[in-house]
Every structure is written in structure tokens, then in C-alpha cells.
Write a structure and sequence with these properties.
single chain, alpha/beta, Rossmann fold, 2 domains, 6-stranded parallel β-sheet, 3-stranded antiparallel β-sheet, about 15% strand
Length: about 400
């Protein structure tokens, strides 16, 4: 039995943050019903690349869900939705604040219908505050929270992270917040509104940066791949590319000098005696290390680091990642059969359990694929389903 088996989730969200949150719950066994508008569905369905007309972006982030197409702007569609709400434990939405009220699907309305419902909202800046009305985008959140000001190289413009860290971070924050509220609901019988914003979800990640700012008044600056307080802890150029080296403590530094690069004299250099010394003289240290590393290929230095027990690794591209035997052994690249796309790969489920392991049980749904199935579970008969289709209430 999977951890969330028997829990029903209504997923009203689209694009990334909300769908990712719902997918996490679906992976763990929840019955996630994704509700989409009849005219085009989730906007990510229009994002390429496409295979046989189906979006691979949508495919990657909506697995293990059932898909229902329902027109919430029609009276009949809204009534059917309310019937679904009565059967649900959790609801996830990422509309701009105020939209759910206009659609009559806000927390207060649905709490009256189902007092035990845990209602998760994901927005750019939260449901309250002076920015609540603004739309939320990952890039804007990276700018407005200081992340871009500390990402990249000092002599280059601010850079965004390589992936949508705030969309994914907000989805994960919402997932654990919703599950905590669900556990509380198990004790009290009462659900609640869980309010998560893209911008706020990442601020607690700034542990070292917050320490520097609140403790010493230092503003974090762009340092490339370097760490702010440890060295050597960055990417270094070799003869044929780059490797990342993580000597974050004195023991690893000593092993690196003696066993990897055979430069014991660096241990007596006053610039490099302590971690703080090395961080202050990271420029000098980089020159010396790259002089040595430049004499051999990356594989040579990774072998020596491995033998010495010094943390190091390659700089992979995505095609390297999907071929790495470690990730393959842990089922982090899986192939899924889709009714239109055919067989397509995706990244697997990162949580591993000693009992039943979550798997990709179904591909992302076609638009409205499970509408009849889900509404039939509510007791809607075949004749009524056809009539609802004819009137554009469902698809």
C-alpha cells in the first residue's frame, strides 16, 4: 500500500508549481483528479516540444493523475464540481488571488460544502499583503528575493538558476504544508487553507546568506561556482573540461594537498592554513589548483580524488545524467507508455521506501480522458453524460 492511498486530491492548478505539488501527492498514491477547462485545458498543453500533437512539457509534470474536463463557468459544471468536492480530502489551486472567489470555488465556499477539505493555494506573493494581486512567475521571484543578485560571476550580469527553482520550491513547500494540514485534520476533522507563495518559499533556503547578512551586515554577492565561506569549493578547469571539488573541511583539504595534487607545501602557506584563509584568498588558490589540474584530464583527477576520499565530481550535461549507471540503478530514468505520444522517458520518483515503492502508474492524461469515469463514480449516468457533453459542460 502506498503512503497516500485512499486520499483524494482535486488539482485545479496549471503550468508548474501546482501541478508539481499534485504530482508529488499522486506519486505517493493519492487519487489526484486534474480538472481542466474544456477550451485547451492546462496552458502547459500548448508548450512544446510536441510529439504526435501532445505536449511533452505537460507529460512530464502530470503523471499518475486522472483527467477531467469541466466547465466551471457553467451552472451545471459548478454543481458537478461541488459534488466532487464532497468526496475530496485536498484541493490544490494556483489562480491569481481573487479569481477563485469570482468562480465561486474559493476556500470559504468550499469549506461550507466540505469542512474537512484541506485547500492549498499557490500564488506569486500569497493571499495577503501589498503584492497579493500580482501574478507570479519563477523568474520574477528569483529577482525579487535576491537570488539573481547572488547568482553568476561578479563581472557578469545577474543570472537566473538553470531550472525553475521557485516554481518547484513552491510546489514542494505546498506539498509538505498540505500534508501537515491533512494530519491535523485527521485529529480535528476540520480542514484549513494553506497559503504558499513562490517568493516566500525560497527565502528560508538562504541559511548561510542570512547568517552573513543578519550576523555581520554582509550583502551576498555573485561568486560564480564558489562557496561564500569555504574553499576550495567550486568548479576548476582541467586539461579537457571542468570538475567540481568540495574540500569544505580541513581534513579534506589536507588529503587533497597530500594525496591528490602532491602539494604538501600548500598546507604551510599562510594564505591557506584555515578555511577562512582559503576563502579570503580563493583567487590565488584557483590559479594554483588550475595550474596543476591543467596537466591532466578530468577523469584523472576524479580518480585521484576518489582514491583519497576527497569529494569531487564531473560537470554533467543532461545526456550524461540519463546515462549514469547510478541514476539508472535507482530508477531515476523511467519509460512510460502514453496513448498518443507512445513510449517516452521521464525522471523517476526520488523518494525510496522500504515497503512498497511508488512508481509511475499512469501517464499524464489526455484532455478529459477520465471525465466519464470520474463522473460515473458520482452516479452520473451515460445519458446525462452525453447531454452534458452536448451542452459543452464536460469534454
Amino acid at each position: 500500500m502506498l503512503p497516500l492511498e485512499g486520499i483524494r486530491v482535486l488539482d485545479l492548478s496549471q503550468i508548474m508549481a501546482g501541478p508539481f505539488c499534485a504530482m508529488v501527492l499522486a506519486d505517493l498514491g493519492a487519487d489526484v483528479i486534474k480538472i481542466e477547462k474544456p477550451n485547451g485545458g492546462d496552458d502547459s498543453r500548448q508548450m512544446g516540444p510536441f510529439v504526435n500533437g501532445e505536449s511533452v512539457c505537460y507529460f512530464q509534470i502530470n503523471r499518475n493523475k486522472r483527467g477531467v474536463c469541466l466547465n466551471l463557468k457553467s451552472a451545471e459544471g459548478l454543481e458537478l464540481f461541488y459534488e466532487l468536492v464532497k468526496t475530496a480530502d485536498i484541493l490544490i489551486e494556483n489562480f491569481r488571488p481573487g479569481v477563485t472567489k469570482s468562480l465561486k470555488i474559493d476556500y470559504e465556499t468550499l469549506h461550507e460544502i466540505n469542512p474537512g477539505l484541506v485547500y492549498g493555494s499557490i500564488s506569486g506573493y500569497g493571499q495577503t499583503g501589498p503584492y497579493a494581486h500580482k501574478g507570479g512567475f519563477d523568474l520574477i521571484a528569483q529577482g525579487m528575493t535576491g537570488l539573481m543578485a547572488m547568482t553568476g560571476y561578479p563581472d557578469k550580469p545577474p543570472a537566473k538558476a538553470g531550472v525553475a527553482v521557485y516554481d518547484i520550491g513552491a510546489g514542494l513547500t505546498a506539498a509538505y504544508g498540505i500534508l501537515a494540514a491533512y494530519i491535523q485534520k485527521q485529529r480535528t476533522g476540520i480542514g484549513q487553507h494553506v497559503d504558499v507563495s513562490l517568493a516566500e518559499s525560497g527565502l528560508p533556503w538562504y541559511a548561510w546568506e542570512a547568517a552573513a547578512y543578519f550576523g555581520a551586515g554582509e550583502l551576498p554577492k555573485r561568486t560564480g561556482s564558489r562557496h561564500r565561506v569555504s574553499a576550495p569549493y567550486q568548479a576548476y578547469r582541467t586539461r579537457d573540461g571542468y570538475v567540481v571539488l568540495g574540500c569544505a573541511n580541513q581534513r579534506n583539504w589536507e588529503k587533497f594537498c597530500r594525496q591528490v595534487v602532491n602539494r604538501p607545501e600548500w598546507l604551510d602557506d599562510p594564505r591557506f592554513r584555515t578555511n577562512s584563509d582559503r576563502a579570503r584568498h580563493a583567487d590565488d588558490l584557483e590559479v594554483l589548483i588550475e595550474e596543476v589540474f591543467g596537466t591532466q584530464d578530468s577523469a584523472h583527477w576524479l580518480e585521484r580524488c576518489e582514491a583519497a576520499g576527497v569529494p569531487a565530481g564531473p560537470i554533467y550535461t543532461l545526456d550524461d545524467v540519463v546515462r549514469d549507471p547510478h541514476y539508472l540503478a535507482r530508477d531515476m530514468v523511467v519509460e512510460v507508455e502514453h496513448p498518443v505520444i507512445g513510449r517516452m522517458k521521464m525522471f523517476g520518483i526520488p523518494t525510496k521506501y522500504s515497503e512498497e515503492q511508488p512508481t509511475v502508474r499512469r501517464a499524464a492524461p489526455l484532455l478529459g480522458q477520465h471525465t466519464d469515469e470520474v463522473l460515473s463514480e458520482l452516479g452520473v449516468g451515460a445519458d446525462r453524460l452525453q447531454a452534458l457533453r452536448d451542452r459543452g459542460v464536460i469534454r
